[in-house]
Amino acid sequence: MIIQLTPPTITPATIIPIACIRPKRRNGFNISVQPHANQTVVHCYGHGGSGWTMLFGSVQRAITLFELTHPNKKDPIRIVGAGCMGLLSAIELRRRGYQIAGIIGKEPYDGASWRASGYFAFSGNASTSAEAQLIRELVTTTLAEYKNIEEGGHAYLNPSTVRLLPTYCKIGSDAALCCEYLVKSGIMPAGQPATLDFGSVQHENFIRYYNYHIQTTNLMRQLMQTIERLGISIEYRAIRSFSQLQDAVIFNCSGLGSAELNNDNGMVPLRGHLIMLKRTAEIEPLDYIVQTVEMQNDDEENLYLIPKHELVTTEYPDGLPCAGVLGTTYAPTDDMSEYDIIKLDAMEFEKLIERAKQFFGT
Ligand SMILES: Cc1cc2nc3c(=O)[nH]c(=O)nc-3n(C[C@H](O)[C@H](O)[C@H](O)COP(=O)(O)OP(=O)(O)OC[C@H]3O[C@@H](n4cnc5c(N)ncnc54)[C@H](O)[C@@H]3O)c2cc1C
């Protein structure tokens, strides 16, 4: 099957390079309940590049663990972190009858959740079979929620946040393996071999699947609106320690902030380089996903194209209309100086633009 696709427009005037950091944890995410001096701290952080894919399962697990140890609904709960994990935890706790003292975030729109592109993807890498089983459970619970949202059955998230999109994966790529897992689990129909035709170039050896695309900006906005509707306050200030808070119960959803707050030296800032594609009167939003691995300077490099309708960050608080996003890298930067990170960014953006232009023939 030959699929004709509109290539992205990649010119200096239509792109915005942005870097963002995944909250990766070396030994896997941390969902646990921990006594902390005279406080109970419930951790839910460290999901790296799969936070959207494990969102609902992770928050549900954190709350279930908490309920087993702390059935008292009288203690107000403080949430640290205003990313997707923190906002959803606050909403779900309130829906279960808990009182929320408020949410704390460092700055509006600062975390990975606002910047990320979003498709349903996870790495099956787990160090034990119990961990692999847990990942499967979290992914399956989350997928069921996205299906529910897409079908219009969700209590507070509407279908504009999630949709099934044609997803073209290079055979043998990690993205194709992830889709195959969903096919084998009976969640996704089998893929079809496809040749991609971008007008000036064609690529064989792709499979077309239908995978969930998460409109991360829309979803974050709807979570924020729900928080406001429930009368939960968000306060923006950086805390250095949980002991600064008077609350008896804290949900720690601080992502990378857990390196300091939970003294977790397993946290790794995993930098992702993205090229935002501007939307203009002439440039339509893109509505397909491509996932590939391409040779560049003798190395295998990832390349994806994912729709993203709007970028909201600390620099663009009012939102910038987008057609999509090109990505990405997975660069650990824990040992790098600021100067080296600036050099890395310049090099990775240039390489990413070059391989995208080559792949899409633009
Ligand atoms: C380039 C990129 C692409 C991605 N693509 C995908 C994808 O396709 N699919 C997918 O499933 N996932 C993807 N992800 C991963 C996903 O975005 C993250 O796993 C998820 O957003 C993490 O959410 P979070 O709420 O844990 O953390 P964050 O969104 O980072 O939020 C952390 C919050 O904690 C607050 N905080 C931190 N420290 C402190 C402190 N000391 N005091 C007060 N507040 C504090 C911050 O201000 C922020 O509000 C991607 C990520 C990136 C960077």
Q: Explain this structure to me?
A:
- This protein has 362 residues and is α/β, with parallel strands linked by helices.
- The chain has one domain.
- Helices cover 29% and strands 31% of the residues.
- The chain has 8 helices and 17 strands.
- The protein has helices at 55-69, 84-95, 112-115, 129-150, 174-184, 216-229, 258-261, 338-360; strands at residues 2-4, 15-25, 30-36, 39-45, 77-80, 100-105, 162-170, 192-197, 202-214, 234-236, 249-252, 267-278, 289-296, 299-306, 310-311, 320-327, 331-332.
- The protein starts with a strand and ends with a helix.
- The model has no long low-confidence stretch (mean pLDDT 94).
- Flavin-adenine dinucleotide binds next to strand 2, helix 2, strand 6, helix 3 and strand 12.
Sheet of most strands: 11 strands, mixed
Terminal Cα separation, in Å? 23 Å
Number of domains: 1
Q: Pairing-aware structural class of the strands and helices?
A: alpha/beta
* Total DSSP helices: 8
- Sum up the overall morphology in one term: globular
Round the Cα radius of gyration to an integer and report it. 20 Å
Mean pLDDT, nearest integer? 94
Instruction: Count every beta strand, where a strand is a DSSP E run of 2 or more residues.
Output: 17
Distinct small molecules bound, one entry per kind:
flavin-adenine dinucleotide
- Poorly predicted regions are none
Portion in beta strands: 25-35%
The helix/strand series, from N terminus to C terminus, equals EEEEHEHEHHEHEEHEEHEEEEEEH
Question: Which bin fits the share of residues in helices?
Answer: 25-40%
